[in-house]
Amino acid sequence: MQPSGSSEPQFVSNDTVEGVNSAARERVLVTGGAGFIGSNLVDRLLALGHEVTVYDNLSTGQFGFLETASQSPRFQLVQSDLLDTHSLRRVMREQDLVFHLAANADVRFGIDHPARDLEQNTIATHNVLEAMRLASVQRIAFSSTGSVYGEPSVFPTPEGCPFPIQTSLYGASKIAAEALISAYAHGFGLQASIFRFVSILGERYSHGHVFDFLRKLTNDPTRLEILGNGKQRKSYLYVQDCIDAMLLAVSNAQDAVSIYNLGTNEYCTVNDSVGWICEALGVNPEREYTGGERGWIGDSPFIFLDCSRIRALGWQPRFSIRDGILSTLRYLQGAGWLLQARA
Amino acid sequence: MQPSGSSEPQFVSNDTVEGVNSAARERVLVTGGAGFIGSNLVDRLLALGHEVTVYDNLSTGQFGFLETASQSPRFQLVQSDLLDTHSLRRVMREQDLVFHLAANADVRFGIDHPARDLEQNTIATHNVLEAMRLASVQRIAFSSTGSVYGEPSVFPTPEGCPFPIQTSLYGASKIAAEALISAYAHGFGLQASIFRFVSILGERYSHGHVFDFLRKLTNDPTRLEILGNGKQRKSYLYVQDCIDAMLLAVSNAQDAVSIYNLGTNEYCTVNDSVGWICEALGVNPEREYTGGERGWIGDSPFIFLDCSRIRALGWQPRFSIRDGILSTLRYLQGAGWLLQARA
Questions:
Q1: Structurally, what CATH architecture does the domain formed by B27-201+238-264+304-318 represent?
Q2: Of A82, A97, A130, B200, which sits most exposed with the smallest number of CB within 10 A?
Q3: Do B169 and A183 touch (CB under 8 A)?
């Protein structure tokens, strides 16, 4: 946990979530552990008493996110890429559990870099699985995405909705990774927990619409460009709620493959979010819409996941979408360096 | 079409199937065009008047399958690998349409070669798509598989069945390829026809259960080892029926992505097939079952696809499963070189 007064997480885990396996100290590898979600997970795992190895190439991760973690004797950082299979296989030895969060996480720019999602998401996942197989590491938790539903026909969308058609290279790379993980689970006896996230918000958030809107409004509070028509309906989940859910699911894993949607029981429009952000900032910009139902190619105009499966384990989020957005905004306002670094 | 008396295809296309675009000669690239299905497709495309380029590394394809095709002035063979992007991009220029059939097509041995399906199916498909994008080739037909349904919960299984979980590396690599194709279609304006095949039978068939059983019974007609318990329920489609369906679908393509199951409206058990094969061969072996519901890891104990979507275009198969199996058997009995070559 962080010292009070910092802009870092001050979330205290509640007693319904005991973590990975609170009875035993485990050796946990977190790929992408210097990233937004990863570093929050690392802090939590350390607080629960585990040994944590972060594997991150720091391409988008921030060393600063690991400042607290790095003070723990149970923490180590390996700065390396998942495409470096030699390094990965060396690190994999002696691990009990892998949280595979490393990814190219930006769905928007897929078509500008058509090979990036394939390499960093699909092939990287294959490398993680091969390293696990060779080192006899049997448990994996994976951060997939609601984007694998493409443009769903059922809302809220359950995990077993009609077989979707992919609309983004990001979603394609993640469903490919899910498929590889499932095939390894069946072929080699791994146990996998796969999480299909909505967009995650909270401390250390460093890309997405709150980030973009704050940066734009900081530059010019009189106008705001909004991608699409503002009517896109989106879901968000607060990062600590997300971590609660992942730890709970992993500690309850029984089947070879368990797949969980992670989100709240609500959605908002982009316009709702703009309203909350502007109100909190005390600005009233002219809203300029780029138009169309989608903010970009592969953008899904409606994301709303049925999360009854994870709720059946006893989980529920404690932050509403609005609370999550406002908490993220406060964090970013205190983290000007981040806003600059990613500008 | 083949000369009469040969063991090569003697199938005459009927008038309900006019082919890719019978009004115009098109330049068609067939990856895997020296393979079982590919070479049959090539013969048909040439008969319809198209210009055909086969791109094949001849790893499992057979030059002999292209003997008739190679006599056409509208045919050329490029012996190269899809991982050779330079060669692929050169060949892609000036094509109108791609039939992407090249693949590691053997679902059984995935776990012995964990990277093979990823490389030859997923990455190779990405390379095809990138080459198409760079050369502004906009139409692709892709041979996917009913294996992407894993172990379905609905029979017959429609294209929009509940979102499946992959059970084989082969299925995983094919769903990854489907996803890439769909994402490219949405992101770059390609038009894609994706076919989820049951097992295909017929002339030039060179792996699968009819092949295995014939080889085993040729070696020893008194006993037959059968993988699994023999009760696995499987579907098969005759290769010329499969080609009819693909050409019909491609000529009717309107959406960015069209997905079709291809199979017959029936299934049989492995034991049924053993009975037909033994009767045709006049043998009565002791049946020795390896046991279990599945023949191998990732084998699906029941494959039966709902093909009403392709039937709605006016297609129907002309060969029953039994006819397809017996026709394949006759072909293989006349192609001892093939049985030897793949032993």
A1: 3-Layer(aba) Sandwich (3.40)
A2: A130
A3: yes
